[in-house]
Amino acid sequence: MTAPPAPRYTAILLAAGRGSRFDADEGKLVQRFSGADTVAVAAARACLAAMPVLAVVAEEGSLAQALRDCGCDVAILDAGAAREMSASLRHGLQQRGQDHGWLVALADMPLVRPATIAAVVAALQAGADIAVPAMEGRRGHPVGFSRRHLDELLALRGDRGARALLQAHPVREVEVDDPGIFADIDTREDLERLRGR
After folding, report:
1. What long-range pairs does 130-133 form, CB within 8 A, spacing at least 24?
2. Residue 72, number of CB atoms within 10 A of its CB
3. Per DSSP, which regions of 4-72 are E strands?
4. pLDDT-derived band of residue 83, with 50, 70 and 90 as boundaries?
5. pLDDT at 36
6. Which ranges carry the MobA-like NTP transferase domain (predicted)?
7. Do residues 73 and 53 touch, judged by C-beta distance below 8 A?
8. DSSP 55-106
9. CA 2, CA 141: separation in Å to the nearest integer?
10. E strand or H helix at 151
11. What is the pLDDT of residue 74?
12. Position 82 pLDDT exceeds 90
């Protein structure tokens, strides 16, 4: 008799945003960050150390290829889709809706440690419906969701992400020692400051 398949959890890496506050023509996600890795690839590698990754990007191109090359599955947003966070999340969930849960990761947060990602996923596997890393009383990213919240996640609109779900439902805070859960890159100054960490 065959054993049932193990529950599957996937990181959905949101990498389709415009990055309008970043002052470079090619965007923040393709900037060099660590060694040969770009910002988005560094974020993807942290997730890949703990789980499979589906990266959602706006179009085919160098970013999509770099993410494939590092081991991610890649989903391209439909040409007419809004490039807001909720559209990217919905697209990723539509590709992986059969999973038991998802880690929603942001491609402009390359310093989250793999151990943090593994701890959030472990909380989901232990029965949490929503799990979030926390440090010194503050919540950070990435956020994990069980399949129980699939319909609510698919109903999200706009760029507020899943904040409303975190306010409406119990959340398991996973205490970590990882300042990377707060460190995102919005500007060139952020990039320069975080490269040194």
Report:
1. 130/165, 130/166, 130/169, 130/170, 130/171, 130/172, 131/171, 131/172, 131/173, 131/174, 132/166, 132/171, 132/172, 132/173, 132/174, 133/173, 133/174, 133/176, 133/178, 133/181
2. 25
3. 9-15, 32-34, 37-38, 53-57
4. low
5. 79
6. 11-169
7. yes
8. EEESSSSHHHHHHHHTT-EEEEPPTTS--SHHHHHHHHHHHSTTSSEEEEEE
9. 37
10. helix 150-154
11. 98
12. no
β-bridge pairing 9-15 and 101-106: parallel
What is the rounded distance in angstroms from the CA atom of residue 157 to the CA atom of residue 48? 27
Name every residue whose Cβ is closer than 8 Å to that of residue 53 and which is 6 or more positions away in sequence. 10, 11, 12, 13, 44, 47, 67, 71, 72, 73, 105
| Residues 6+ positions from 44 with CB-CB distance below 8 Å | 13, 53, 55, 67, 70, 71, 72, 107
How high is the pLDDT of residue 18?
65
Domains of the chain with CATH codes: 9-195 (3.90.550.10)
Residue 174: phi and psi, rounded to 5, are -105, 110
Residue bearing tokens 């959030």 = 120
pLDDT of residue 188: 87
